[in-house]
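Raw record, unedited: UPF0145 protein SAMN05421834_12215
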Amino acid sequence: MKNLIIVNTESVAGREISGQLGLVRGNTIRARHIGSDIMAGLRNIVGGEVKEYTQMISEAREEALKRMIEEAESLNADAVVNVRFTTSQVMGGAAEILAYGTAVKLN
């Protein structure tokens, strides 16, 4: 496994892009857990961070990023530029996290 460069900018500092390999993406869909919903409901009353949801979204973001990286590696990319994350609700209680960017070759 090579050391793929991941950036949210249009270029990699100090490197020249020699070619674009195309869009790469990774996604995951996560659903809420009834136990988390109960804790979230209680925190909604008293206020504060809903740590169960924060953890769930953080894990989903890492999984989506991992899948994007695997797709870039399968193209033999040196880097992924313009990396972005987006989320959308796919049904009540479930959300999709999508990581995407452009796989490139570097000089």
